[in-house]
Structure formats: C-alpha cells, structure tokens
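ok so i was messing around last nite and threw this chain in just to see what happens. nothing serious, just curious
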Amino acid sequence: MTKNNLSFEQQMERLDAIVKQLEKGEAPLNESLALFEEGTALIAACGKMLDEAEQKVVALKKGENGEPAETPFEGGE
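result:
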C-alpha cells in the first residue's frame, strides 16, 4: 500500500511510528535517512490533505449575501 492510498489517520500513525523509531537511535544511518525521507513525504501529504479539507469547509460556509464567508473555527470542549 503506497502512501497515496493511506487515509490521513493511517499516515499520521505511520509518521508516529517513524518518529518513535528515529528517537530510539538504533537504526543504521542509511535506514534513518530513508525513514526521515518517508516522514518528510508523509508530513507534506498530511499538510496537503489538511489544506484541502480547510478549503472545503470555507467553501461550505456562506455569508449573508450568499457569498462565501470565512469564519473562525470554534471547537467545543
């Protein structure tokens, strides 16, 4: 399964696993570099997915005159 087929959540899980593996410091240099490159690609892919999701949310919100109106997200706790 390539990273393009993974959901946002799956990519974040893989990124977490990569970080934990790199933090151990037990991988050889070439493997660490490969993990770092994979992690960098995952970060870029997740960032793109978040940007696309944000654009959809903004597009779904309409202002008083029917024009899109960007409003801040209010998360409830």
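not much to say yet. Helices lie at 8-24, 29-60.
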